[in-house]
Design a protein that fits this description.
Layout: H1 3-14, H2 26-36, H3 41-54, H4 58-62, H5 66-73, H6 80-95, H7 104-107, H8 115-126, H9 135-145, H10 154-167, H11 173-186, H12 205-208, E1 225-236, E2 240-241, E3 244-245, E4 256-257, E5 260-263, H13 269-272, H14 276-281, E6 288-291, E7 297-300, E8 304-315, E9 323-324, H15 335-343
Parallel strand pairs: 1-8
Antiparallel strand pairs: 1-5, 2-9, 3-4, 6-8, 7-8
Length: about 350
């Protein structure tokens, strides 16, 4: 079968109208690809427009502060993408004269740009025949060719990449890559794929051998870690609170939050006040100390679930430097903190 030709015909008839498909500008394509890593299209689209409005070119983004970028990114998660975005913008603007590399070999050297993103940019912007392989592509190829190699194994990654590279249209790699990804998203869906209208159903191994639900194969995920977060929300008599910036290489690096005390299990007021981290702040006893949410808020990340309680600490003066509570919204914060701020009535 002429897979590439039939796939592109399907794409041209069925593709969604997405803003980044109307350009070959490497900056805009790169921006869209970074946003869409680990993010659904409908969630990412407003962020794409917000970033272009704030930073219409790589030079304006390169001159932004990290806090500006993190604040604009707020709610998208996986914040290392935002930091890498800024780092790469600065590298392209200040070291490469504002010109993105025009081939996969050099694109993949950019921070935050892996094989998939480099292939997408190289094919869309520079017509280089490099296959872009994401979860949608794994699913389509696994079902169509009956491949049972786990997609998240080193052997699987190599096998699927090589197969996609064999199939890619050398004449139209941009449309091929976008078509294969779109086909996985809209036709060969994870659940309830549209097999009855699929142009490849007669050749599809999964369809003809009733293996649709079994393919693709994926190795079991790592065990999810359970953590217990306790945020101390200080409120002084003059309406100030304490915000601290997260440091280190853990989650939410560079974002702001209320003072955090992590405990090995769910904390009660009696055992929380005995924690060293709390004692450091309670050198002067607060006027009032109470739990804001009786049931912990569960915030799910990829490999960890955060069981979170917010503790309100009313006091005359703060035990550390404070900020006006109405100014808190100006800080880049995790969505967990943002949701609390939106519901907390000072």
């Amino acid at each position: 079968m002429n897979f590439a030709k039939r796939l592109i015909v399907w794409y041209l008839e069925n593709k969604r109208d997405l803003p980044w498909r109307a350009t070959k500008d490497p900056y805009k394509v790169w921006l869209s690809e970074i946003i869409l890593q680990q993010t659904r299209v409908e969630q990412g689209k407003p962020y794409y427009f917000k970033f272009l409005q704030a930073f219409p070119n790589v030079f304006s983004l390169a001159n932004a502060s990290e806090e500006e970028v993190l604040k604009l990114w707020q709610g998208l998660g996986y914040y290392s993408r935002a930091r890498n975005l800024l780092y790469t913008a600065q590298h392209v603007a200040f070291n490469l004269g504002g010109e993105f590399p025009n081939n996969h070999k050099n694109l993949v050297k950019l921070k935050g740009v892996g094989d998939y993103t480099a292939s997408a940019i190289a094919s869309i912007c520079f017509d280089e025949a490099q296959a872009a392989v994401d979860g949608n592509v794994y699913r389509v190829l696994a079902r169509l060719f009956g491949i049972e190699t786990p997609t998240n194994s080193s052997a699987g990654i190599k096998q699927f990449r090589n197969l996609a590279q064999e199939l890619i249209s050398k004449d139209d790699p941009a449309n091929f890559n976008q078509a294969l990804i779109e086909f996985g998203s809209e036709q060969c869906k994870p659940r309830n794929p549209l097999c009855n209208t699929c142009p490849f159903s007669s050749e599809c191994v999964a369809y003809n051998q009733n293996k649709i639900a079994q393919l693709p194969v994926k190795l079991k995920k790592l065990k999810v870690r359970k953590r217990h977060f306790n945020y101390l929300v200080f409120v002084s008599e003059n309406g100030e609170t304490i915000m601290e910036q997260r440091r280190g290489k853990g989650i939410w690096e560079g974002l702001y939050e209320f003072p955090l005390v992590e405990t090995p299990a769910e904390a009660s007021v009696e055992n929380l006040v005995m924690e060293a981290g709390v004692q450091d702040y309670f050198s002067n006893s607060p006027k009032e100390f109470y739990l804001y949410n009786e049931i912990p808020i569960v915030h799910k990340l990829t490999h960890q679930h955060l069981y979170t309680k917010f503790w309100i600490c009313s006091c005359e003066t703060l035990p550390a430097q404070g900020v006006r509570f109405e100014e808190v919204n100006k800080y880049p914060v995790p969505v967990l903190i943002e949701n609390f701020i939106d519901t907390f009535d000072l």
